[in-house]
Amino acid sequence: MKLFARYAELVGAEEVEVAVALPTTVEKIVAALKDQYPAARAIPEHPLVAVNLQQAGAGTEIAGDEEVALLPPVAGG
Amino acid sequence: MRHLGPEPLDHDAIVERVHDAECGAVASFTGTVRPDEGTVAIEYSAYEGMAERELDAILEESNGRWPDARVEVAHRIGRVPAGEASVIVVAAAPHRDNAFAACRYVIEELKARVPIWKREERGDGSGVWVDHRGGRVVEAPPSRPD
C-alpha cells in the first residue's frame, strides 16, 4: 500500500507490503499495517484511505489488486 | 484545465489562456508561501493521480454551477521558497459575479479535498508538517545531515 507525507515519514517508506488474507477490508488492512510496522501505530485508528484513487470507508472490500493509499489530512494551497 | 508540477507558476500566462473575447471579468487567486516563524520554504507533495482526478472533479462542479466561467488551476509541487506562489486559480466570465464565485469555489474545494501535503522548512533545517487549518501537526527531525 502507498503512504504519503507524514505517514511515509513515520514508517520510513512510501510503499509497503502488508500480509493479509484476501478478500479483506480497508479496516483490516490498516490494522495489519499497524501490526506489521510498529512505527505506523502513530497513524490514527481511522485514517483517510483511498482505494483506486477514490476515498473509501473502513468497510470497503479489498480483493487484492486495488491500489490502496493512506492519506494524512490534506493541506494544499 | 489543471496543472500540477515543479515549475514556478506563471500568473500572466494563465490569465492569457483563460481570458477570451466573451469575458468581461477575470478573477484570480494566488497563494504564496508566508515566511511565518522562520519558514524559508514549503515542500509540497501530492498523490498525483488522485489529485488530478479530484481537481478535474472540482472543475467539472464549477462548470456545472457557473457554466459561463472558464477556470484554470495550477499547483506547484516540490520545494517552493518563501514569497513564491504555490497555487493560482484564474476564472474568467462575462460578468464579475460568476468569475469571483468560480474562483472562490475552486480554491476552497482544492484546500479541503485535493491530496496535497506541505512541510514547512525552517532556517535551522528542521521541518514541520502543516494541516489545512494551519495547525502544526508534528515536529519532523532536521533534514540536514549532521
Q: How would you describe the overall organization of this protein?
A:
Chain A contains 2 helices and 6 strands. Chain A has helices at residues 5-11, 26-36, and strands at residues 2-3, 24-25, 48-51, 54-56, 61-62, 68-71. Chain A has a 4-stranded mixed beta sheet with strand order 1-6-3-4. Chain A has a two-stranded antiparallel sheet with strand order 2-5. Chain B is of the alpha+beta class and 146 residues long. Chain B starts with a strand and ends in a 6-residue tail after the last strand. The model of chain B is unreliable at 141-146 (pLDDT under 50). The interface between A and B is medium-sized, with 16 and 30 residues.
Give the helix proportion of chain B (percent range): 25-40%
Uncertain ranges of chain A: none
Give the overall shape of chain A: globular
Mean pLDDT of chain A: 96
Largest interface (CB < 8 Å): A-B, 16 and 30 residues
Number of helices of chain B: 3
Distance between the termini of chain A: 26 Å
**Going across the major beta sheet of chain B, what is the strand order?**
5-3-7-8-9
Radius of gyration of chain A, Cα only, in angstroms?
12 Å
Count of DSSP strands of chain B: 9
Mean pLDDT of chain B: 92
Q: How do the strands of the widest beta sheet of chain A line up side by side?
A: 1-6-3-4
> Biggest sheet of chain A: strands, sense, closure?
4 strands, mixed
Q: State the helicity of chain A in percent bands.
A: 10-25%
- Assembly status: heterodimer
Radius of gyration of chain B: 16 Å
| Span of the ends, CA to CA of chain B | 44 Å
The total of beta strands of chain A comes to: 6
- Class computed from helices, strands and strand pairing of chain A: alpha+beta
Q: What are the salient characteristics of this protein?
A:
heterodimer, A: 77 residues, alpha+beta, four-stranded mixed sheet, B: five-stranded antiparallel sheet, 30% helix
